[in-house]
Amino acid sequence: MSVITNKWNDGSGDSISIESPSFQGNQTVKISSPVQKGTSKRSMQFIGKCKKDFSKQVILTVEQEASVYTYDLILSSDNTEIAAKGGTANITAVLKTYRNGNLVSTDNVTPVLSGSATGFSISGTKVTASNRTTTVGSRRSIVVTGKYSNTFDGQTVSSTITIYQEVNEASYGALTGGSVLASDIPASGGTSSTSISNMSQTISYTSGSTRAGTVTYSKTSEITVSSLGTTVKARTKVGQVTVTYTGEGSVTANKTVDIYQAENKVTNSNYNPRITAYGTPTVSIGSGLTAAGGSASVSASVTNTETYNALYSSGAIGPNQTRSVGGSLSISMTVNGNSRFSLSGNTITHSSMGTNETTDTITIKAVNDGDSSKSATASKSITNSKTVKSTSGGIYTYGNIVAGTISNKTIPASGGSATATAGNGSQTWNKSATITTYEYTSGATKDVTTEAASNGTANVVPNVASITATASSKGTTVSSQTTVKSQAVTWSANGKSASGTMYIYQAANSIDSYNYTEWEIVLRANPTTIPASGGTSQLTNGAIRYRIPVYTSGATGSSTTVSSIPSLSISGDGFTLTNNIVTASKNNGGARSCIITASREGAVSQTITITQLAGPDGIGYMQIEGDGKSHPIFRVGNTTRSIEPTSVNQNSDITSDKDSSIFASIKQLLFKFI
Fold it and tell me: What is d(CA 522, CA 606) in angstroms, rounded to the nearest whole number?
């Protein structure tokens, strides 16, 4: 028995076979093929040829019908009824695939969900129900449609599932809190006033939400009573007020408050005091007033008659009562034309009469503030006289000596001589006048001049008038200002003296400036020739000059070296400069070079040339190797790369004992690279 097997040409990889006893003469053949999974009809031609005459042939066309696919999409949820407080339901799906009516697969798939309903939302495969908060409502639902299109033949399959959310109901709580308060009705009578604070109620929902309920209230009539007048009585209960609260859901509560009338008693035993008769004042002046000055107290008082009543809590007023009380008064001062007396409150002050030979008199008047016709007075007098006490004056006194001006000198750091000087000082003198002194009863004294005073100023010569000194140049020695010579100076006269010191200095010596030579740039490269394959060259780059110090003395010191790094630049293709290193890339052409320039402000620029050798030309070819497949080789120089082979056409012949491969075409390519 012989079998020929070939691949279906639909890309499925399925094989079709023909089975025959010998493939000779008249034959009945058996054709076999696996289940067609595709959705399009497929066909295959078998060609039979005569071995003796290949022009004689027969063609057998075999067709296989397409498969028909049907599907069931089954939706499931992990939560078919979401609580009133909100939550989620996760939707899953199972896809059953039928081919030609036969179940071929059962798969878990991810559906695309859609649907809308109040309080519901869909995101991916999750259905979310929001919290129903305080809105009362019956059970609600959403119809969710799930679709899936990634089926074997691209059909879109859909199915539905209903998700519910439970009913949201209200529960009415008891009334809590609140208060009923009432202040006492005064003893003067009146109507009670009840202060009411509302009670509260909480409404709870299946959703877990709560809210405050609406509570109203009403009360019984307020209590009214009359005044207690002057009847003394304790606090007394006179009635009640009841408040009824009503909340939602017909929930009620009552609160009652007792009403009292306040105690009636005397609240002010000294009510409305008033003066009904005014008395005459009494006044006197104490001791302490003298010609030398001093003070004395004024004693003054007055007594008046006062009438008063008792006041009750009810507001009633009792009968009149009388008593004697101290009154208020005003005092004033009158003097005999002098300004040495003053009055502050009840205190008289008298300043010293000094050298005034006179008599001072004061009169004090006291007046009842309630009746100015009621008044009294008191008076006092003081006399001042003088006597001779002593005679003095005619004495010489001398002031401190003022030192003369010292002129110090400074010799320059380069050397020389100088002279310092000291000028005359000065001293003042005074002669006092002759004085006669008088003393008064007040204790004051008065000086009378019998001879006028005089004064003047005298010169004082120093003990040393000048000094001279000489100093040589400080050269290159650095130093601060130095003292060359000093001399103490004294000015003396009339038992007093002053002193000072003369100085001759030499100025400080330091480096005041520098002289500089010109900058010199040094630029070298190693190597100066780079091979064609590429490479680097190390640069040596620097600049120096000399610094010479100049001193205050005019002398110059030893020179020092100052270094600097010039800036570098490069010109020339194929070369780069980084951190004093010149890099040349591979050169496939002729010889080339670059120029490096080192420059710095104030210096003459320097250049150096680096050369790269020429490189050889490169030519590559596309070569073909045959080993049953197309396998081109891309070769340039010493580098080899493979490229994708060209396609090969392959036919099968049912008369052959085995399949054979034919190279339909080979393209030869030639590339030249420079």
Answer: 7
